[in-house]
Amino acid sequence: MNNITLIGMPGAGKSTLGVVLAKILGYEFLDSDLLIQKEEKRRLYQIIDEEGEDGFKAIENRVNASIDTENTVIATGGSVVYCSEAMEHLKSIGKVVYLSLSLESLEKRLGNLKKRGVLLKEGQTLKSLYEERVPLYEKYADIVVDEEGKDLEASLQALLETLQTGVIK
Fold it and tell me: Which residues fall within 8 angstroms of residue 50, CB to CB, at 6 or more apart?
């Protein structure tokens, strides 16, 4: 399978970069958060509020593990890396690309985390979430693209070069 799955923190640009990448490659584009909302007929933050953290993870795991597509750029939710079944499935159907960005840059990009449907534990900060997730992103990534200091065009160029050469940056 030749899909490209984008993982990374909320605000790293998975959806934005994914749409443009899909156009350039002539691929389909799939946002797994939107797929979750469609299947559940609720917004992400509503699912988290109503089902709790574990309930949301179960739904996220089920939906991502059932993605059956080819020639598609898949933008995932930032918390998909907690779902080992989903991550193994996504790795089996293509390359997993981690869009890496510093905590400082993410803080500048992000607005209301709750309305974005970001999975935060009670009292958890963006910093502690970042520190918890980065090792998981690195664990599952086939390719890492450092987006630090790059605009959309530069990030896209770095990703395309990495995909063509297969060299991890």
Answer: 42
